[in-house]
Amino acid sequence: MSKIDLIIVESPAKARTIKKYLGSNFNVASSMGHIRDLPKKHLGVDVNNGFEPTYSILKNKKNLVKELKHKASNAKRIFLATDPDREGEAIAWHLSHILGLNFSENNRIAFNEITKFGINEGINSPRKINMWLVNSQQARRILDRLVGYKLSPFLCQKIQKGLSAGRVQSVTLRIIMDRESEIKNFKPEEYWSITANLKHNSSNRTFKANFWGNQDGEIKLKSEEQTLEILKQLKGAKYIVLEVKKGKRNKNPAPPFITASLQQESARKLGFTSKKTMKIAQELYEGVDVDEHGTTGLITYMRTDSVKISEDAAKEIEKFIVNKWGKKYLPNSRRNFKNKPNAQEAHEAIRPTIPSLEAEKIKNNLTSDQFKIYKLIWDRFAASQMSSCVQNTVQVKIKANEMIFKASGSNVEFDGFTVVYTESKDEKENPEKMLPDLEVGMECTLKKLEHLQHFTEPPSRFNEASLIKTLEENGVGRPSTYSNIISTITNREYAIKENKNFVPTELGTIVNDLMKKYFSSIVNIKFTAEMEAQLDKIEKGNIQWKGILNEFYDNFENTLKSAKEKTKDLKIRLKENETDIICEKCQMPMVIKRSRFGKFIACSGYPDCKNIKKFLQTINVKCYKCNHDIVKKSSKKGKTFYGCSNYPNCDFVSWDIPTSELCPHCKEPIFQKGNKKFCLNCKK
Length: 684
What we know:
Elements: E1 4-9, H1 12-22, E2 26-30, E3 36-37, E4 45-46, E5 52-53, E6 56-57, H2 62-73, E7 75-80, H3 86-99, H4 116-123, H5 131-158, H6 169-185, E8 190-199, E9 206-214, E10 217-218, H7 224-233, E11 239-251, H8 259-270, H9 274-286, E12 288-290, E13 294-296, H10 311-325, H11 368-384, E14 389-400, E15 403-414, E16 443-455, H12 464-473, H13 482-491, E17 495-498, E18 501-504, H14 506-518, H15 525-539, H16 545-566, E19 578-582, E20 589-595, E21 598-603, E22 612-614, E23 617-622, E24 629-634, E25 640-644, E26 653-654, E27 657-662, E28 669-673, E29 676-679
Parallel strand pairs: 1-2, 1-7
Antiparallel strand pairs: 3-6, 4-5, 8-9, 8-16, 9-10, 9-15, 11-14, 11-16, 12-13, 14-15, 17-18, 19-20, 20-21, 21-22, 23-24, 24-25, 25-26, 27-28, 28-29
Helix pairs in contact: 3-5, 5-15, 5-16, 6-14, 8-11, 8-12, 9-11, 9-13
């Protein structure tokens, strides 16, 4: 039997899609992700010998390695087609070592899209493994290992077992904590507003105008006394149009998605976590069985920081736009969006691989979540190549005695790209209505004059979208790592989510305070961003990776040594670990402990008393069936639900949050989902 070529990818799903296109001339195998790494039980980095790493095959991959070696020994040629980024390049390098490949050969291929075109393009463009990319990833991995391996034990000794620290994780926690400090230290300032509800006498249409000031300039209303004085001066006033400015404004579409913007928009529009978003995007990239197309990758590679798109994709979507909406929905010249500094120019933005394949056309081939993400990507991509939205605007000044009110309005003259998609914002926007047809000198009738007291509000807590936006803007971490960073912070219970916002716990506060006090450089946003810039320079071959490690480690080791000396007698006890449960064996109070299996309750008299209990998180609501406590639980997939602590004797369970309230109509229990409360019985 003649030998055939072997292609190794990371994912079985990706392997199946590629195999469909290549047929019997190729054997396609999967490494199932990473195949070797630094060892779990020791540092694995020789800091005294140029930071030489020691890699070992992952325990659960040893049988797979044997299979891959067997397939490689029977292959004509071997191609490594792991993902087209730093991490994928490093996995290809590890595979080369394990399989004994020749590093001088062109055996590395990359697929930006898992389609016939993308696969043929990759197969026809083999290259050597890019050691600059590999070394950049090695530097990142070793930096993270040095920080995590050295700092995590320090936190465990000073606070409790099971804690972790990380180079980017700890900075992200600090960002959350700094915002919390801003909120706590915020001092609201009083201000007032005066609104005139006016009627346009010719059309009888009503509109609102807001007090601005007088002819000398703007007046800020800071007290009730000042506001009442203005109201006195407005008594009996005629409201005469002083000035009318009409204009047009163009609203331009956002660029196609990159990794960070996809995560943000998915959180805003769909309520998806970054982890969920990336998982679904990976499925769409690796291939879905689609009517008339078979198994095909539906989007380009989803880990990218480039907003550029290919010439062919631009032409195809332009043709689709003209056919569906008409030529006026195409701009006079093609839109070209500018990449941020250090973006990987070789990559494309996240876009549909078949631009003409609208989401609605393949809805029946996708899961509900896949459809939502694919539609988001398709809509954003199509909109990015469409005409601007044109709006008519009007700004009006209205004189009342010596006082001036202002009003503004707008309407859409041409919808442009908004026929497909509009970008969500973290801040709520107040929609404007078009004002009546006002002319200078025209008098309007006052219907009502309202004055209201206001107070400035503190900054909002971070949600997933705004946190990712802040990380991206400050150059902290890489977008492909955001989901893991956020998951670690919540899994370690440094912060919890309340109404989708991150709220620091006592544990998170203490960890952050300790890190800020003794490791200020590690949790410094500017320092972390500069380190990312250094990693980018390694990737481009501008600096040597081991030099960066050496420079970092000298300062880090001295800082760690100093922290250990200053805190040798420090042991922090958390109030949140205390309970009101008394040990029935020795009458000592019981406390919450953590292990690698999760929380449990143990006697504070340990080791004299070794009594332990299962940890149950109550919500201060009694079971409607048996009057025992209702507790918060997690399913095997990590989804929160609520059940009776008397299980299995009581079978009460609910995905929605039980409350202690009763429905006023039927006296059945009230449940809560998000901010909405409802009765299951009468649906009110």
